[in-house]
Amino acid sequence: MGQRDVSAEVPNEASVAEAVATALAAIAQAATTAELSAAKYEHNGDKSFLGLANRAIGGLAPDERKAVGLLVGQARGAVNAAIAERAEALAAAELAAKLQAERVDVTLPVAQHPQGAIHPITAMLERVGDIFTAMGWEIAEGPELEASWLNFDALNFTPDHPARFLSDTLFVDPPEANKLMRTHTSPVQIRALLERDLPVYVVSPGKVFRADEYDATHLPVFHQLEGLAVDKGISLANLRGTLDHLAKAMFGDDIDTRMRPHYFPFTEPSAEVDLKCFVCHGESVGNPDRPCRTCRSEGWIEWGGCGIVNPRVLAACGIDTDVYSGFAFGMGIDRTVMFRNNAPDLRDFVEGDVRFSRSLKGDAR
Ligand code: DAH
Fold first, then answer.
1. Nearest atom (ligand 1) to Cα of 189
2. Which atom of ligand 1 sits closest to the CA of residue 227?
3. How far apart are CA 77 and CA 259, in angstroms?
4. Which atom of ligand 1 is nearest to the CA of 186?
């Protein structure tokens, strides 16, 4: 369009001025950067009037060359300057349009994608696992569907022990298979002793099952932590020190433990272990003005059972009881998390409302 055949004529002021005017008009009209490139190609490209005029300069007589060269050079310079200016304006306009189109209305409601939370029991199990692995203990696992022999017999439960009653234990059909849902994590002690070389230092966190009511303080499925150390020269002092360390790591340095004599078939002597109440530190005892909900003003909270491993248990696993001795302990994790967090109802732990886990921040502390 508007191209002129320059081969026949020498560019002159009028023809160059006309070409510049046409070019500037096309540049001014370009509404997009793409249209501007097209205008540049058409009016200042190699095959445009000005492009060809530029090429023709070399063939002119020397006396014409200087004037025509100046004329064409200035014309092309003007066109290029106009292109650059228009390019800048178009780029700015295009950016403004893009920003406008992609504008985000921060006042609009956003889609909610609520995050989950680590369950407080999981958090506590991991924490306890960390405390023991830091001391060089290993984590041992056992199945939830367990052989009756491992759950009871090997742990020195007599054949008529009440824990074996159907009212307490969930047996699994067929009866002759002698399988049950483990009632405690203690069978992992036997598995660890049968599978590992001595000395053995293991903790075993896991689910246990009992034919219990489902209410604020009982769940038919709950969690225990089992601990077992078998080595040469193990004594009650080692047990006491280990439980004290666990209590302090979980509840703080100012926490004490105490042991009360008790009976378990698989430990001798046996004890129940209590924690000094970490809320009132015993100050609620005999002090009606300062009642404590956490320990019911008793100053101590029942935490679990423990003792020196009964030599009969070691012997059942083929261990020389003249050389080796051990200690064991077991405690309920759900209860520990419950009183650690002042959670009043154990059912909240299993009802799956993420607000509960989030309120404890997935943090068992
Ligand atoms: N297994 C016991 C229970 O379920 C807890 C327990 C007591 C475990 C004493 C032990 C222990 O290892 O030594 O009540």
1. 12
2. 12
3. 99
4. 1
ω into 11 cis (within 30 of 0): no
Give the pLDDT score at 364: 40
Contact 2, 50 (CB under 8 A): no
Summary count for the chain: helices (H), strands (E): 11, 10
How much is the pLDDT for 318? 95
Among protein residues, the one with the nearest Cα to ligand 1's atom 3 is 184
CB-defined site of ligand 1, < 6 Å: 184, 186, 226, 264, 267, 305-307, 328-330
The pick from 188, 306, 336 for probing ligand 1's pocket by mutation, whose C-beta has the most ligand atoms within 8 angstroms, reads 306
pLDDT on residue 331? 95
HEC readout, 339-365: HHCCCCCHHHHCCCCHHHHHHCCCCCC
Packing angle, helices 120-133 and 236-251, rounded to 10: 130
Mutate to test the pocket of ligand 1, among 183, 184, 223 (most ligand atoms within 8 A of CB): 184
Q: What is the pTM of this model?
A: 0.69
Closest by CA position to 50, among listed 82, 85, 29, 21: 21
Architecture of domain 120-364: 2-Layer Sandwich (3.30)
Average pLDDT by stretches of 10, the chain with 365 residues: 54 90 93 92 91 88 87 92 93 92 87 82 92 97 96 93 84 93 97 97 96 87 97 97 94 90 96 90 91 88 95 95 97 88 85 84 49
